[in-house]
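Batch manifest line 111
LIGAND: zinc ion
JOB: complex structure
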Amino acid sequence: MADMNDIHSQRCFHHPQREAAARCPECRRFYCRECVVDHETRILCADCLDRLVTARAAGRTRSGRGLMLRAFVGVILLWLLFYGMGRILLALPSSFHEGQVWRYPAEWSEP
Ligand SMILES: [Zn+2]
Ligand SMILES: [Zn+2]
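JOB STATUS: finished
ARTIFACT:
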C-alpha cells in the first residue's frame, strides 16, 4: 500500500515509460511533468482541468439562476416582513389608545 503513495515508483498514466512527476489530486493518478498543468496553485492533469473548467462553467450558470431565485425569495420575505410589521404597527396603537382612553378615566375616578 505504501508503494501506491510513493511517487517515484509510479509511472505516468499516459507515458508508461516515464517516471511520474506529479499526482493529480482530482483523479489520484500519476503523471509526468508534461501531462500536468498548473492551475490556480494546484497541479492537475489535462483531463481533470477540462472537467473542472466545464463543471465551473456549468456551476456559474447554475449559481446565477440560484442568485435570481434567492433575490426573488428575498423580495418576498422582505415584503412579508414589512407587511407583518405594518400590521403590527397598525394593531399596536389602537389597543394602546383603547387602554389609555378607556382604562385611565375609570381608575382616576375611583378614589
Ligand atoms: Zn486528473
Ligand atoms: Zn505523461
